[in-house]
């Protein structure tokens, strides 16, 4: 068996292992619930808001309704949006690329979500804001 054949067999085994953890047999956009519904071969259904997935926020109902399931069931593709979701990652709660998820977490972390946090932020602003780090000179 040559190198390419060995590599191919390794890839096939890896794909089969991922398929065993769950693969999509169908997917649709439920307009009433405003959710993407993915049905796995195990009978489990996953529902997720499009705004949580990279590339789908702000999409029209027509765009969201056109979902293609890859032949192996490991990927979802929205051709009108040129957006893709990897099903095993979706099962693990990964909703986009690493950089996109970091940007989502960063923007969420800076928001005021409670009256106490908002009040503390305003009080800190009245004192001149966050103190400068060591070695930073003012100008």
UniProtKB/TrEMBL annotation:
According to the UniProt entry, which residue ranges have a biased composition of type Low complexity? 110-123
Record-linked Gene3D superfamilies: Uncharacterised protein PF10387, DUF2442
Spans of biased composition, class Basic residues? 124-133
User: Where is the region Disordered?
Assistant: 104-139
Organism superkingdom:
Bacteria
Q: What is this protein called?
A: DUF2442 domain-containing protein
Question: Which species is this record about?
Answer: Marinibaculum pumilum
